[in-house]
Amino acid sequence: MANRPANAAQLEAGKPLLKGGEVGPDDVKPIRGKGPNILMIMSDQHRADWLGCAGADWVNTPHIDSLLKEGLLFRRAICNFPLCAPSRAALASGLRAGRAGVMGNEYIYPYNVPTYYQALRAAGYRVGCVGKTDLHKKDHWEGENGDRPLMYHLGFTDPYELEGKQTAAIDHGKPACPYQHYLVKEGLFEKFSHDYNVARKEYPRRYGADSVLPLEAYEDAFVGNHACRFLETVSDESPWHYFVSFVGPHNPWDAPKEYADKYRNAKMPEAIADSPESKSEKFARITKRHKDMTREDLVNSMRHYAGMITLIDDYVGRMLDILEKRGMRENTVVIYCSDHGEMMGDHGLFFKSWFYEASVRVPLLVSGPGVKARGTSDALVELHDLAPTCLEMAQAEALGAMTAKSLVPLLRGENESTRDCQISEMRGSRMVFDGRYKMIEESAGPVELYDLEADPRELSNAVGKEPQRAARMGRLLADILQAEGT
Ligand SMILES: [Ca+2]
């Protein structure tokens, strides 16, 4: 509690501060940020295995891969909730999404739940962001400069918030964010909106086609260019945490022509074929919708998805170059992650909101000062662990009770694990993974069980064969959640 202010007791009791000399000149200390800069790069819906450093030879991510030279890739990281707003609320709070009070995209982040951005600001950090935060997703208004007052409340000092890619194409009555203002000014909004809301509605959402926008007007180029300008000019007088939140490679899969061209004839991986026999009712219902997807169409979607990832990777490279040129690289921790994965045809499914590997696992790399471990880690980490990790690196005060656990002992190479099990949740269902077995349950009890050593593709639901193991894991899950106070 190094940063606990001397008048903390008064603040907590809600007492007036300036009464009868109760507060003296020595009771309030100057605030000076002490830790490294933190560049937190997040993409949207980037599945963990579509990275060169994770073994993919069909997608080029040289700049993200380069982070491994001075860092660690968590190969088994999962998100806390495979959906945008809840996953990002868990990250902001260091709490499971249910405990933070965000169980779907229609929820607004509760203003009384502390964020780690607030704690960084209180520790003297400049806290910037560009792109989508999804902390008030249903709102659809970020303002012309992306800096609505609530963003300052949530802890940001330099916000530049945008709509996500699908909602950026919707006419909200007036431009809702800086990107929409830009598109209107450039005379591109109607073309973009027509592409998403008319042209692409003629075929299913899972199909790929080039963006109608010129490269420089594509939303992730807009995000990346703004991020580069920030990094070129941000003062080095105080440490900063900069959240660069790309909106790709979320569907619609619409890489700009220049990036689609890079993969036009590229070989793409096979998707995991599956049948609904031992899966859930939801599985049977949803896979039916995608049954007519041909291999050719799937490959086309994959190629666009790969192009969108490589575009983000190029911006990662540009940001790293700027840090290098400004002499800031040695003092900047660089993190790459995504809010959840993407099924991309595995098990006949697309998008997210599944606990299968493609949807629940996320890329998670941490590199830079203080990171002594190198290469890969199989520790059972969760996305929201980045909240206490950033606070510890920044020497900021912890946020009350968090369900997240700092990755710092793993990054320093002092420990190989921080927890025995991973947990992820959705409305009405949740999963636990103990390093070998994954159990998925709905409120009525266990519904799926996979032995990921024997069955890494999650084809054989063992819940009927091993009901006792499934029940045991259900009790384990309940015990952990109870111990956490959930
Ligand atoms: Ca998302």
- Give the number of DSSP strands: 12
Distance between the termini: 25 Å
Oligomer: single chain
The dominant shape is globular
Q: Architecture of the largest domain, CATH level 2?
A: 3-Layer(aba) Sandwich
Name the CATH superfamily classification of the largest domain: Alkaline Phosphatase, subunit A
Show unreliable segments.
none
> What proportion of the residues is helical, as a percent range?
25-40%
Identify the bound ligands. Answer: calcium ion
Task: Explain this structure.
- This protein has 486 residues and is α/β, with parallel strands linked by helices.
- It folds into two domains: 31-419, Alkaline Phosphatase, subunit A (3-Layer(aba) Sandwich), CATH 3.40.720.10; 428-486, Arylsulfatase, C-terminal domain.
- It has helices spanning 8-13, 62-66, 84-93, 97-100, 116-122, 149-153, 178-185, 189-197, 219-233, 257-261, 281-289, 295-325, 357-360, 386-393, 408-411, 467-484; strands at residues 37-43, 71-74, 126-131, 158-161, 240-245, 332-338, 364-367, 375-377, 422-426, 429-433, 437-442, 445-451.
- It has an eight-stranded mixed β-sheet with strand order 4-3-5-1-6-7-2-8, sandwiched between helices. A four-stranded antiparallel β-sheet has the order 9-10-11-12, covered by helices on one side.
- Strand 9 and strand 10 (429-433) form a beta hairpin.
- Helix 9 (219-233) packs parallel to helix 12 (295-325).
- The longest helix is centred in the middle third of the chain and has 31 residues, at 295-325.
- It is globular.
- The two termini are 25 Å apart.
- It binds calcium ion.
- Calcium ion binds next to loops.
